[in-house]
Amino acid sequence: MAPRTCALCSTAKAMLKRPKTGQQICRECFFYVFETEVHNTITQSKLFRLGDRVAIGASGGKDSTVLAYVMKTLNERHNYGLDLFLLSIDEGITGYRDDSLETVKRNQQQYDMPLKILSYDELYGWTMDAIVEQVGRKNNCTFCGVFRRQALDRGAAMLAVDHIVTGHNADDIAETVLMNIMRGDIARLGRCTSICTQGEDTIRRSKPFKYAYEKEIVMYAYFKKLDYFSTECIYSPDAYRGHARAFLKDLEAARPSAIIDIIHSGEAFEVREDVKATQRVQRKDPFSLCWNDWFMCLSETCQRCGYMSSNELCKACTLLEGLERGMANSGITDRGRKKMEADGPTPNNLRTIPFYNPPSGNPAVTIETLA
Amino acid sequence: MSTISLKIEFGGGLELLFANQRSYSLSIPAIVPTNNRTTPTPPPTPDQPQEPVETKPADVTYLIHHMRDHLLKEREELFIEDDTVRPGILVLINDVDWELEGEGEYVLKDGDEVVFISTLHGG
Ligand SMILES: [Zn+2]
Ligand SMILES: [Zn+2]
What are the start and end residues of every segment in region (Disordered) (chain A) (predicted)? Predict the structure, then answer.
């Protein structure tokens, strides 16, 4: 078979087929269109302002590694004027997070960006290893999800950043749309697809890779020889999400536009107000898989730690109290919580999370700089 | 019987299924059974006479079966599905997306390098 030439420059040899368009393009044109599409997403959604301090939520995995590289590239190429930081959360998972953090530390050197690592251990006094030892493997993702979300906001506040960007890609968003449909969670659909969210007192969060296909992110990392870590979390299996993922990949194999089509469906859903009202009640269940929808119901602050909350106590404080009182699983359901309350008042000497001060200007920590 | 030498490489965590080894050099026959059988056909017996075996030049589909039968150490369903790689695994032949090379039908040449990358591991 004679080598095909690139559909864009008509000179170099085509190296990949774009899933979104079917176009066959060369390596250099691929870099250019991939980066330019992310740039267009950023400018069309007006994600940043000149001088913004932006933290990249960095796990060491492919998405956040490519995101850090592309953000640095675009910031320099288009003079966004951003101060970029890497923010990593150390959940305390031996053999998984410790290794991936080594990757993030190398990225810090390679990309010349300041890095802040905040650990569950320093924030909550519990590592995921210790939590799993107490709660088993069934609900551990609940703890991890609640703790990570709050840790990211707190880490961002320490860095005094205006904005957190995460590596969620088109496949992730399509997967979340599918899961919300399958769970009947119609009210969440629209918000899950929104590129940027901000509630009162929270730090803006956005997803510059919202329209970037996973295949292209991996190809980009491969052709650029970026250094990323790829091992499944040893505690992870969220079976439901796994099935949604496999289903999505099957759809994509049959028709590559399926991913963007699903995102568009999520965006186009308009939910009638009366339907939203009934959903709002159910939404009190805080264990959403969608990162965005929390803000909607978080109007108060936690009486114990100052973080946004829809109840007197935020979810992390509730879970932590359960752990500390040796009733770990009672923090998870409303029923369990009532049982814990009935069991007696909160002991005075209970370990708590340091009080949360929403971002106010100056960094509250010294940032680890390059050696 | 002539053979071809290949180099294969894994990325994105796929190496975990292959004894955690990132790259392998291997030789496969240049002509292989059309049904992708990678082990010798059993010798003929009186009631099961040897059927003539249909053959084809070794292609990537055959390579995938060879890898499953001889290199894969665990959880075959995470690698192979319906006689091809599982959706979500990217394949590059000499650094070119295999979708441009005819995917499984690409006929392997001596010295080819084939890379398999999983996209399914967390971001
Ligand atoms: Zn080109
Ligand atoms: Zn709290």
Answer: 330-350
